[in-house]
Amino acid sequence: MLRGFNTAGAGMMANQRYQDSLSNNMSNALTPGFKQDRSTFRAFPEMLIQNVESRNIPTENGLQLPFRNNVGTINSGTYLQEDVPLFTQGDIRETDLSTDMAIQNGDLPDENGFLFFEVQNEEGDVRYTRNGNFTVDGEGFLTTNQGHYVLDEDGNPIETGTENFEVQQNGQVTSPFDNALLGIAYHENANDFVKEGDNLFANEGDVAVEDARAVDGVGFQIQQNHLEESNVSPEQVMADMTRAHRMFDMNQQVVKTFDKSMELAANQVGRLQ
C-alpha cells in the first residue's frame, strides 16, 4: 500500500512539472523566435519481487532450505526527465520595421542542424538566438530588446547609428556608420544548446559552433522587416494541459483511495468490540 502511495505521488509530481512546462510554452506563444519545450518522461527502474520462504526437506534431521519464488516485476512510478527544445522554424511574419530580422532556413546538411543569430550577453560571452526583434540603443549599436549586442561575423557589435539601414539576404548590413555581415551561426546538433533565459541559448556540446557561411551545404536568407514567430501551437498546448490535468487528478484520486484504506487499517481493523 505504501508503494502505491509512492507511485501515485510520483505521477502527481511528474504531471505538475509537465503542467509548468506547458504553461511556459503558452506564455511565450507570442514571443518571436521562441522554441517550445517538449517534456520527456521516464519510469523509475523496475523492481523484481520475490517471495522468500523456507521449505522442509523430509530428512531425519528435518532439514530446511531457503526458497525464492519470483513473483514478477513492479514499476515504482514515473518522472519528468527533462525539457528538450523543439528546433523547428516558426512562421515568418512581416512587420515593416527595419530593425526586425528573420532567418529563413534553406538547405541544411545535418538532420538536427540549425541556424542562429549571434549576440553577446552581459558577461561578454557569445550566445545564440532566433529572436530577431532587434532595436538600436542610445549609442547607435544594434541590440536585442534585452540590451544584448548583436554581433557581426567577427564577433564585434554592429553599429548602425540609426534605424535607417538595410540588410541584404546574405546578412550584409549597410548603414551610414558600419558595413558588416551579421554573425549567423550554424551547429550540426541543435540539441546541444540549452536555454538561458531572454530567449538565448548556450552551447554545451563538444562540437564548436561554426560560421554558417563557411559550412558546405548550408543555405539561408535574412529577411529584413520580418520576424520569425514562436513555434508554439496554442491549440496543441491547451489539449496537452487538459490531458496533464486529468492525469494529475487520476493520481490524486488514487492517493485519496489509499489514504482511506490506511485510515481503515489504523482505526478500525483489529478494534475490540
TrEMBL record:
Flagellar basal body rod protein N-terminal domain: residues covered: 5-35
Keywords on record: Bacterial flagellum, Cell projection, Cilium, Flagellum
InterPro entries referenced in this protein's UniProt entry, alphabetically: Flag_bb_rod_N, Flagellar_FlgE/F/G, Flg_bb/hook_C_dom, FlgE/F/G-like, LlgE_F_G-like_D1
One Pfam family from the record: Flg_bb_rod
Record domain Flagellar hook protein FlgE/F/G-like D1: where: 115-174
Main location (coarse class): other
Location relative to the cell: Bacterial flagellum basal body
Domain Flagellar basal-body/hook protein C-terminal: 223-266
Protein name (Swiss-Prot/TrEMBL): Flagellar basal-body rod protein FlgG
Organism: Alkalibacillus flavidus
Lineage, uppermost ranks: Bacteria, Bacillati, Bacillota, Bacilli, Bacillales
